[in-house]
Each structure stands twice: as C-alpha cells, then as structure tokens.
Amino acid sequence: MEWPDGLDTGVVIGAFALFFTVASFWWLNARRGSLRVARPGAYVFADRVRLRLPLAFYNTGAVALIVADLRIVVETDDVREPLHWIAVLPSMGRSGDERSDFATPFDVPGRGTRQLVAEFGDDKSWSPEPSSRHMLRLEAKVHPSDDWRDLAAFDWWAPPPTADVTRMITYRNSPDQAGRGSGFALTAVSPAPLKPARSGFTGAPRPAARRR
Fold it and tell me: Domain 35-185, what architecture?
C-alpha cells in the first residue's frame, strides 16, 4: 500500500493504535448507557390507589446512572394522572413484616443491575374492570436531567372478579390469573405470645403401672 508523500507508515500505525486505545477506554470506562427494565411478573394492588411492582433495572453503559424519580402512566386511561412513586420495600411480603422507606434516589452501577419493590399510588380511588388489560408505562428522571424518559411499557392485568380490591393482595401479572382468584391477602399475622416458663413440676402425675 502506498501512502501519500511525507506520510510515514509508522505514524499511521501509531495513530490507529492511539485511536483504538482511546476508543476502548471510553467504551469500557466512560460510555453512558441507558436503563432497561424487565416486565413485572407479579404485583400488589388496592383501589385506594396502591400499586407495588417488583422492578429489575439493567444499566447498558459503563458509568453508573442515578434514578431520581419514578412514576407509572396508565396509557389506557387518558383521564387518570400518573401514579407517583411513594415508597421502596425490601420485598412483596406480608404487610407489617417489612419496613418501607420513602422514595429516594438510587444508583444502577455500570453494566450492573438493581432490584427493588416500588410502591406507586395517589389519593384517588381506582377500581378497574376485573380481569381487564391495561398498558402501563414506567417513566424515570435520570440525573442530571429533569425530563421524564420511558423505561418500559407492559401489559397489566387487573385483579379477577373474586378479588377484594380494598385490601393489599398479590396477583400474578398474567391473563391466566384472570377469573381464577389466584391472589392471596397480605394481612398482618402476629405470632402467638409465648407463655413465661414456671419453675417446678406442674404436670399431672402419671398413673401407676399395673402389677401383673
């Protein structure tokens, strides 16, 4: 291959090597990616309104991303305002057994994941038609931007006809649960109180063995 006059082959090779080194460093250490969120397979719902979703975030880039806020938009209901992010819970477990935290920003490490249970809601009651399908869109504010960006859109299946939507109940987010009443109530369960131990023998005496 002939190079233009005055252009040395070693200089060209060195330039290519430098460009490859800088590009590789940027790709591995400084590239800003985007967030991807998996479709929730279950949810907790009550019509007051409270909606809990188990969310898993994946950062496609090399640098950490900070999620400043979240919200849920019900695309199939133009009148309803977005459901605001209220709290973070350690699990979808029984109410009273978990400690919730206020909605606070969190980070997703580069090429890493973050799992959390987020609770959304407002003060307006919502009783969707049983077993109906709704399109929900998860939006986020990612620091330093103050704009809402789409993270995921997924089908959400309302509780079946047999559900008691006045209570916090868990359901599978699937059309298979519609009409089968496959939720279970998240009622607080208190353990039975332990009785204090007493000293001495308090049991009834054993009957004497019969002599043959």
Answer: Sandwich (2.60)
Listed residue (74, 75, 159) closest to 121, CA to CA: 74
Give the long-range contacts of residues 132-136, CB within 8 A, separation 24 or more. Answer: 132/157, 132/158, 133/76, 133/157, 133/158, 133/175, 134/74, 134/75, 134/76, 134/77, 134/158, 135/74, 135/75, 135/76, 136/72, 136/73, 136/74, 136/75
**What pLDDT digit, counting tens, does each position of 161-176 carry?**
999 999 989 999 998 8
User: How far is the C-alpha of 179 from the C-alpha of 8, rounded, in Å?
Assistant: 76
Q: Reduced to 3 states, what is the DSSP secondary structure of residue 210?
A: coil
The reported pLDDT for the residue numbered 93 is 67
